[in-house]
Specification:
With 219 residues, the chain is of the alpha/beta class. It folds into two domains: 102 residues, Formyl transferase, N-terminal domain (Rossmann fold), CATH 3.40.50; 113 residues, Formyl transferase, N-terminal domain (Rossmann fold, 3-Layer(aba) Sandwich), CATH 3.40.50.170. The protein is built from seven helices and nine strands, in the order E-H-E-H-E-H-E-H-E-H-E-E-H-E-E-H. A seven-stranded mixed β-sheet has the order 3-2-1-4-5-6-7, sandwiched between helices. Helix 1 packs across helix 6. It is globular, with a radius of gyration of 18 Å. The structure holds 5-O-phosphono-beta-D-ribofuranosylamine. The site of 5-O-phosphono-beta-D-ribofuranosylamine has 12 residues, from helix 1, strand 5 and helix 6.
Length: 219
């Protein structure tokens, strides 16, 4: 069982999916603490409803990002955290945290990385005209959404999609794959070599992903 912390800044639907997976017995993790940089994050309420300890570390209370990140690392260490999952955490993770948790910080991002790192990515995917988008769980390194990929799920982008409808379709997949990735970590099934993460016991479905489907084009 992995000792987990979740870092949030906002609504926390991914946090909720992690909590629900633990409570359903599908995720073998102990969620020790939910930490937010935003005291108004609704995610904190979600944690409290499930009697999970919360911590708030506000950037404004620190002279710079180094001191801010050092305090985050200190608080998480005080709980004995082993894995840190970012879930809608809107800041870059600083060196102090990465050094305290080497290859033990993961993130969920709403695109098929390395396409569309950064912010407002559902809009960027629509504007670019891609036919498939999705989400990625990856290890966090010093870059922006650039660390080794653990698991990805793809969704079609439809002609009549808005940013909101695409974001909803992607979010449903986020809620499915993030607990799954944490479970793989918890079971010790992830091995990182350079940029590649191998998943022990993983089976590819062999199903191709295509949008629009060729049967429709040919028909
Ligand atoms: C998700 O789309 C996540 O991928 C991104 O921020 C959003 C957070 O949503 N990093 P929530 O706070 O988990 O509802």
């Amino acid at each position: 069982m992995v000792k987990l912390a979740v870092l949030v800044s906002g609504g926390g639907t991914n946090l909720q999916s992690i909590i629900d997976s633990i409570e359903a017995g599908a995720l073998d993790a102990k969620l020790l603490v939910v930490l937010s940089d935003n005291p108004g994050a609704y995610a904190l309420e979600r944690a409290k409803k499930h009697s999970i300890p919360t911590e708030v570390v506000s950037k404004d209370d620190f002279p710079g990002t180094d001191a801010f990140n050092a305090e985050i690392a200190r608080r998480l260490n005080s709980y004995g955290v082993e894995l840190l999952a970012l879930a809608g955490y809107m800041r870059i993770i600083g060196p102090a945290v990465l050094e305290a948790f080497p290859m033990r910080v993961i993130n969920i991002h709403p695109s098929l990385l390395p396409s569309f790192p950064g912010l407002d990515v559902q809009r960027k995917a629509l504007e670019h005209g891609v036919k498939l988008s999705g989400c990625t769980v990856h290890f966090v390194d010093a870059g922006v959404d650039s660390g080794p990929v653990i698991i990805q799920a793809a969704v079609p982008v439809l002609d009549d999609d808005t940013v909101e409808s695409l974001a909803r379709r992607i979010l449903a997949e986020e809620h499915r794959i993030y607990p799954k990735a944490i479970q793989l970590f918890s079971e010790g099934r992830l091995t990182v070599k350079g940029r590649r993460v191998s998943v022990r016991g993983a089976v590819a479905s062999g199903t191709k992903l295509e949008n629009p489907e060729s049967s429709i084009i040919e028909g």
